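[Archive record]
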Amino acid sequence: MQSMEIKIGDTIYHADKGVLVYNYEKKQGLSGKLKKIFECLIDNKYKMVPKEDLFAVAYEDEPPNDCNLYSLISKLRGTLRKCDQQLCIENEYGRGYRLYYEVNSDAL
C-alpha cells in the first residue's frame, strides 16, 4: 500500500488499522484474508485483478479454490455496501474482479 489513508468515494480506508470509515464516524474493520483482498483491489482500482492473483494474496500456501474466493468476495461486497452503496466489486466471469466507485448519474 502506498499510503496509510486512502479515500474511495465517501469512504476512507486506514490501511495500517484495516478499518473503513464512512459517514464521517462509523467504522468497519477488515482482517485477515478480507483485508489482503481489499488492499490488492485498491492497489489495482478500476483494473481487472485476475483471480489467480487474489488466490496468491489471500491463500498464500493453500491450493486455489473458486468457492473460497467467491465467499470472501461476497463477504467483502456486503461490508462495502454497509459503508457506501456506490463502492462496488465487479466480477468478470473466469477472469477476475475489479473495484470501482459507481458515480450516481442523478448527482451530475
